[in-house]
Amino acid sequence: MAKIPVNIDGKSLEVESGKTILEVCKANDIEILTMCHLEGLGDIGACRLCLVEIEGINKLLPACTTKVAPNQVIKTKTEKLKKYQKITTELFFAERNHVCAVCVVNGNCELQDLGYKVGMTRVRFPYLFPKCEVDTSHPWYVMDHNRCILCTRCVRVCGEVEGSYNWGVMKRGVAARIISDFNTPWGESITCTSCSKCVNACPTGAIWPKAVVQGQFKKNPKMITELVEKRKMHL
Amino acid sequence: MNRQELRTIADQAKTKQAQYKHKVCVCCGAGCISSGSQAVLEKLQEEIKTRGMENEIEVVPSGCMGPCNQGPLVKIQPDQTIYQRVTCENIAQVVQSQLIEKRPIEELLLFADSRPKPFVNAMEDPFYKKQLKIVLENCGDINPEVIEDYIVCDGYKALDKALFQMSPEEVIAEIKQSRLRGRGGAGFPTGIKWETVHKYVADQKYVICNGDEGDPGAFMDRSVLEGNPHRVLEGMAIAGYAVGASKGYAYIRGEYPLAIKRFELAIKQARKLGILGVNILGSPFSFDVEVRIGAGAFVCGEETALVASIEGKRGTPRPRPPFPAESGLWNKPTLINNVETLASIAPIINRGGQWYGEIGTPKSAGTKVLALAGKIKYSGLIEVPMGMTLREIVFDIGGGVPDGKEFKAAQTGGPSGGCIPKEHLDVKVDYESLVSLGSIMGSGGLIIMDETSNMVDVARFFMEFCMDESCGKCVPCRVGTKMLYDLLCKVCNGQGTRKDLDMLEELAIYVKEASLCGLGMSAPNPLVSTLRYFKSEYEQQITKNAAVQGGTHG
Amino acid sequence: MTKKRIATVWLGGCSGCHMSLLDIDERILEVAKLADIVKCPIVDAKEFPEVDVALVEGSVTSDEHWRELEHIRKNSKVLVSLGDCALTTNITGMRNQLAKEDVLNCAYKDAISNDKEGKMPKHWVLLNLLDKVVPLHEVVSVDYVIPGCPPSADTIFYVLFELLNDRVPDLAAERKLKYG
User: Fold this and answer.
1) Residue B69, CA distances (Å) to A97, B63, B90 in order
2) Which of B42, B63, B521, C134 is 20 to 30 A from C6, alpha carbon to alpha carbon?
3) Do A32 and A25 touch, CB atoms closer than 8 A?
4) Total domains in the fold of chain C
5) Does residue B362 have a cis bond before it (omega within 30 degrees)?
6) Cβ neighbours of C20 in A, within 8 Å
7) Which residues of C32-53 are buried (b: 16+ CB within 10 A; e: fewer)?
8) With contacts defined as CB-CB under 8 Å, which chain C residues touch B549?
9) pLDDT at residue B546, rounded to an integer
10) In a domain, C20, yes or no
11) In this complex, is the C-beta atom of A221 within 8 Å of any C-beta atom belonging to chain B?
């Protein structure tokens, strides 16, 4: 593929055209924070953590869905972006009921890691404390909406990789919820294959297997990435 | 049908209309219908029938005439006399006095209750005199449910001209010359958009008419769709020809049942006459249109969410680029224009881009349809040349603020716009001037507020709207608007602190810059602009029960 | 140099943060060199005196907590939120999804251990639960925070030691952040 020149954070680079800014940054060891992105799944640009500044464009654009263009001057670590990443993280924590102390992934959580990375010491915004359901109807897994950040990685992995389309989204705004089939208990799903892909794709403790206790569960999102890669090899 | 037959239809309809002495239009826009115009229409038809005057008087249900809060409205042609608040009891008098004795009924004339001397010819009233109707030129004068009525008024002549006398490139050049800009709100140059879609090579392209008008207090698109659906359809067909699309979708919000009904009827009529379908008017160009009904989500007015909705998916936006011009509906190049933009196309093709470009201001050409609402004497639908001052619109056309109250602010652009205070009443209403004041032109809603309006409450109202309508996909909009709304409620309830004000300002900028689509990006606008012009009102509402002061680290 | 004065307070929490504080073990001697602990749940002092540093554990769950916290703020030069409850409401905040009445009924009436005959305690000297549990910084301004459930003894000591030496602790920069 053709190489094009771009400048990222003051570094001049020759990169493959047709790649997203995120892919280019990863290939060049430039760290970009992400949450809704999971390698192997389609990108949606929803979490806004990977926003970058591009010279000549008056909007911040997500690195995961924006393709590099010749001679682009990209900045990924400006004060403004850092500030926005921090606010986004605070809003994630304030939106639902993230009680780390009782969570199965405490210590192995992408949301916690994000907080540490952006240096979030506390959430300045008032916690919303929404009333959220915990769906324990599935024989093996639990869906706890208290810990869901609506990244929709479960929705995409279920549709794009497993092909089951069990997960979906209902309602709007802060009332939006991940649903199984047409908002029926997960245990009654006629589409779910119990493949556990959503469990591993989920970055927080929202989807977890029943047989674990607080702080004892580690997810394996790389499994999704590898699976997608292996499938490509067979095509 | 070929083009010659189209002309024959026009001539026949013209001859038929010339037989009548009068054409009486009864406004059957949604506003007048809700104040009882349907009964007035039936009563009038009955009265004409009993008096045996069917061959002299043509009674027509028409689209919106403008002064909506004065309805039901009845317009007598060719005298251009408009009667307001007509009831069934008035009908006999109108027929006897106006149509038979040629004596206008003074007390029923338009604005009779508010003008010292109302005009018999309503077009001489300042309300109409200062307007310039291009998009709305036939609206209120023709029956939107009869295609011949439109054809008589040079309808589909522009399509004929485009198909037989112009190449797609020439059509685009004409639109570019007109300097027409998107009327949906963002004001992107229409010609450039068309050119972009035109240059992409694809086996299939689409034209979408965005009729998902959702701003509170805005009803421009509804009125155009209800009052003159064929004009929009003609615009879509011309656009399809110019960009090389053979399929069009009209996305109309479900809350507009009348607009949907009339537009679907218009499509049927046009298909029947061969104006839509295969080989339009005998030309090699084929184009057809389907209606898609919105299910009540404001965000589906955003073009990528609209595309998702038409595809049958959840109506949520996606990041741009790629823009729909490159990859839109089913990943094909797609032209998405607003109703009013498409309704401006036929006159531009008929009369030339230069003519249109000379109207308005250098950067904002042409006219804009505005929906006047709120604390204003004559609320309704108007169309003015771009660059008219806000003062002229509010006071000369709208009659100013009622009940002797003082004008406080005008809200333009709905939940995406801002408030313009009275110091800036002389601002020209065009894209750039409004942006410089922290507001936007938007789709054309203009809400007037008087001295009794609480601006913090106004900001809260619009924030609540955006919060409810946020699709929930991106974090800044989903959670940010909720936080902003909660903070505004706190301030409104007198529990706000200075810290809350600072947080409001910080979050507002974040939501504006970090959100995924236009909804989130513009949601803080009413807040930001009221903070800019009415900060004292916020400060007044902040009580002193702030947290005990101390350090602010951590 | 005069010795600084420290207070530690236990509001709506489990006292786990205080246990963690005790886990600083012999390092308490270093603290003692620089400061006196003048008020603490394990020190018998009735009034909250004026102090340089107040470490406050737990969230604000009642009107009494609210008054107490306001008093602490007025009498402390530096106020530190100690632990997740103080910062996020944590476990204590889990009742925020429910109505206060339901919570009280569950505790005093409906619970099986009450034999359905429990009585709702009501006396003017008793505290009143707030409708919602709130973190400290929603009531007063907070200067520093130590997240964690509980925060590790090392982190508590780090913050305390920096403050006693008139330095600014920075958990993020020191990579000492830990939630839960």
Assistant:
1) 49, 15, 18
2) C134
3) yes
4) 1
5) no
6) none
7) eebbebbbbeeeeeeebeebbb
8) 141
9) 46
10) yes
11) no
What's the whole-model pTM score?
0.94
> What's the CATH architecture for B455-541?
Up-down Bundle (1.20)
Which chain A residues have any C-beta within 8 angstroms of a chain C C-beta? 93, 97-103, 106-107, 112, 115-116, 119-124, 126-127, 129-132, 215
Neighbours of B9 (CB within 10 A): 17
The range of the structural domain enclosing residue C52 comes to: 4-93+132-164
Reduced to 3 states (helix: H, G, I; strand: E, B; else coil), residue A30 is coil
Lowest mean pLDDT segment, chosen from B34-38, B39-43, C122-126: C122-126
Query: Does residue C100 lie within any of the structural domains?
Result: no
Contact A97 C147 (CB under 8 A): no
The CA-CA-CA angle for residues B272, B273, B279, to 5°, reads 100
CA distance B485 to B467: 7
| DSSP secondary structure, A96-125, as one string | TT--GGG-TTTTS-HHHHHHHHHT--S--S
Asked whether the predicted pLDDT for residue C35 surpasses 80, the reply is yes
pLDDT at A182 over 80: yes
Residue B522 is predicted with a pLDDT of 94
> Which residues between 127 and 146 in chain A have a beta carbon less than 8 angstroms from any beta carbon of chain B?
128
Query: Given A95, A122, A124, which is nearest B479 (Cβ)?
Result: A95
Rounded to the nearest angstrom, the minimum Cα separation between B495 and chain C is 13
Name the CATH superfamily housing domain B147-356: NADH-ubiquinone oxidoreductase 51kDa subunit (3.40.50.11540)
User: Mean per-residue pLDDT for B25-30?
Assistant: 94
Report the alpha-carbon distance of residue B151 to residue A122 in Å, rounded: 67
Pick from B488, B470, B490, B491: nearest CA to B479: B470
In a domain, C107, yes or no: no
Of all residues in chain B, the percent with pLDDT exceeding 70 is 98
For the domain B363-450, what is the CATH code? 3.10.20.600
ipTM exceeding the 0.90 mark: yes
C122 located within any domain: no
Letter for the amino acid at A214?
Q
Query: Is A100 close to C135, i.e. CB distance below 8 A?
Result: no
Give CATH superfamily name and number for B20-123.
Answer: Glutaredoxin (3.40.30.10)
B380 CB contacts (<8 Å, ≥6 apart)?
B31, B64, B66, B67, B68, B69, B70, B371, B372
Position B261 scores a pLDDT of 97
Contact B63, B57 (CB under 8 A): no
Q: Which residues contact B107 (CB under 8 A, 6 or more apart)?
A: none
Residue B40 near residue B85, CB atoms below 8 Å: no
Segment B230-283, tens digit of pLDDT: 999 999 999 999 999 999 999 999 999 999 999 999 999 999 999 999 999 999
pLDDT in tens, A28-71: 999 999 999 999 999 999 999 999 999 999 999 999 999 999 99
Across the beta sheet with B407-412, what order do the strands follow?
A: B380-385, B367-374, B445-450, B407-412, B418-421
Beta-strand pair A134-135/C51-57: unpaired
To the nearest whole Å, the CA of A191 is away from the closest chain C CA by 31
Every domain range in chain B assigned CATH 3.40.50.11540: 147-356
Mean predicted confidence (pLDDT) in B296-305: 95
What CATH number does the domain containing C53 carry? 3.40.50.700
Long-range contacts of A155-158 (CB under 8 A, 24+ apart): A156/A38, A156/A41, A156/A42, A156/A44, A156/A201, A157/A38, A157/A41, A157/A197, A157/A198, A157/A201, A157/A224, A158/A197, A158/A198
Residues of chain B with CATH 3.10.20.600: 363-450
Q: What is the 3-state secondary structure (H, E, C) of B461-478?
A: HHHHHHHHHCCCCCHHHH
Q: Which domains are present in chain A? A: 3-77 (3.10.20.740), 100-234 (3.30.70.20)
Return residue ranges of chain B for CATH 3.40.30.10: 20-123
CA distance B84 to B68: 10
